[in-house]
Amino acid sequence: MNRELRITGDGSHTMYVSDMDESYHSKHGALQESVHIFIRKGFQTIEKSPVHILELGLGTGLNVMLTLAESEKSGSDVFYHSVEKYPLNAAEFGKLNYEAMIAGLPAGSLIRMHEAPWGIDFNLSDHFRMFKEHSDFRSMDPEGRFDLVYFDAFAPDKQPELWTREIFSKLFALMEPGAILVSYSSKGEVRRVLNSCGFEVRKIPGPPGKREMIQAIRR
Ligand SMILES: C[S@@+](CC[C@H](N)C(=O)[O-])C[C@H]1O[C@@H](n2cnc3c(N)ncnc32)[C@H](O)[C@@H]1O
Fold this sequence. Notes:
Elements: E1 3-7, E2 13-17, E3 22-23, H1 30-40, E4 51-56, H2 62-74, E5 78-83, H3 90-93, H4 98-101, H5 109-115, E6 122-123, E7 128-133, E8 146-151, H6 165-174, E9 175-183, H7 188-196, E10 199-205, E11 212-218
Parallel strand pairs: 4-5, 4-8, 5-7, 8-9
Antiparallel strand pairs: 1-2, 2-3, 6-7, 9-11, 10-11
Helix pairs in contact: 1-2
S-adenosylmethionine (SAM) binds at residues 24, 34, 57-60, 62-63, 83-86, 136-137, 152-154, 159, 162.
C-alpha cells in the first residue's frame, strides 16, 4: 500500500493511500471527525464500565488515543480489540501529531501502542487494556462480546467486500444486546444491509463536512 502523510483541516494528520485515492479520515479534520463519530456518538453513549470495544481498522491509532484520553477522564475501564490488515510502519506512525493534539494522554502512548506486539494483551493505562489483531476483517476471530463497534473501514465504494451482510452478521453475533455500532458512512445500501442483519439503524448528524452518519443498535 503506497501511503503518504497529509494534514487535514483542523491541523491533525491523516494517511492518504494513492493506489486507492482514499484518505484514512476527512480532509475537513481527522481529529474533529473521529471525536464526533467514535467518541461523542459512540463511547460517550455507553453507560457501563468496563466497556468492550471492537475496532475494524486500527490504522493510525487515532481512535485508540481518543478513547484512551476519554477513559482517563471518565475513569471507565476499557478493553479495546482492534483489527488491522495493513499496519503502519515506524516511519509512518512516528510522524503522527496526535499526542500533541489530544489532551490527557499518558506520555508516549501512541508509539507504545504501535510498537506493542500483535496478538498479546497489553495496558496503555490502569484503565485501558488492548489487543491488536493482525488479520483481515473477513477472517477476524475476536474472543468475547462487545458493547461498542468502531466500524472504520475504507469507504464502501472503495472496499465493497467489507460492507457486506456476512461481515455485519458476524459483528451482530459478537455484540451484546443493546450494543452500538458507529460508522461514518450513511449510505442507503449500508443501512439496508445492517437492517437485514437485525440492527436498528439510526441516521444521525455527522461531523463537519458530512451531513449524516450511522449509529446501529444491536437488539
Ligand atoms: C479508514 S482507515 C481508518 C483507520 C483508523 N481507524 C484510523 O483512525 O486511522 C481504514 C483502515 O482499515 C484497514 N483495512 C483495510 N482493509 C482491511 C481488511 N480487509 N482487514 C483489516 N483491516 C483493513 C486499513 O489498512 C486502514 O487502516
